[in-house]
């Protein structure tokens, strides 16, 4: 009898543990996404939404919610709050201007995990994430530097924040690594997604002699302008070659799916912790779209070699010596820009023509 009683007691003590394991296995992730543009932009928002759909295929992820074209700033807090009220336990806010609103909502909802894209602030239940897009930006600059005939390259840029400035600089460094005579002219649009304004900016650069265009914009308008005027173009966000089949050379592109899946798994397992994520080409989050057949084989070979060097940690686009527009040394020979320096970058490298609005 004593042995039987001992066995029954052992079984009873084990039941809560079994139940807890079952509860953990059944935990679901309900994710919500805030987008700055429309899903159909074919660029930034489209790339995030492709990853959302991939994440949703995980068996423990419930059908997710996305809200598109949400204005940045304080107004976005209302939309983020709405996702909280509807029971989402994981919320991705996918543009720089959502940063403070995300933190504000997160302070009042400690049981929800928030992930903010491209910002620099974190909290107990807020992490941030981005990719080292400056790596493929540099590579695309090599292509542009080799393909220009006039040594005038135009760059349609969104907002004068470090993310955009860093990309322009990396691109220009790539250009001048193979063509020191080339310059990169910058025009600001002060918008992420406005095809009309982007097209006007692209045309203005073509008007002053640019024969290759690049961009930090969400719409394919820059590509369409280049196609219409017989110029070459470097895309961004996704492989947009269908919008400019004759003009397209390549594009720095995003693949958010590996990260979104990882975050969802951490939330499910209860292992998520606030951190600042900045993944590079070695993770597959950022990369370069396949190059057009118009890019000569020797250029493609050069880019492939530099790609492997970046992935292996043998080359860094911001390794010195690097000078600014005024010729002042900003990164000394033998030195490499630190992450804080890159994340706060507010100056243009030598070879960039344009100013940074205050």
UniProtKB/TrEMBL annotation:
Keywords: Signal. Residues 1-24 form the signal peptide. It comes from the Bacteria. Transmembrane segments: none annotated. The keyword Signal applies. InterPro entries: ABC-Purine-Binding, PnrA-like. Residues 28-308 form the ABC transporter substrate-binding protein PnrA-like domain. This is BMP family ABC transporter substrate-binding protein. It comes from Desulfuromonas versatilis.
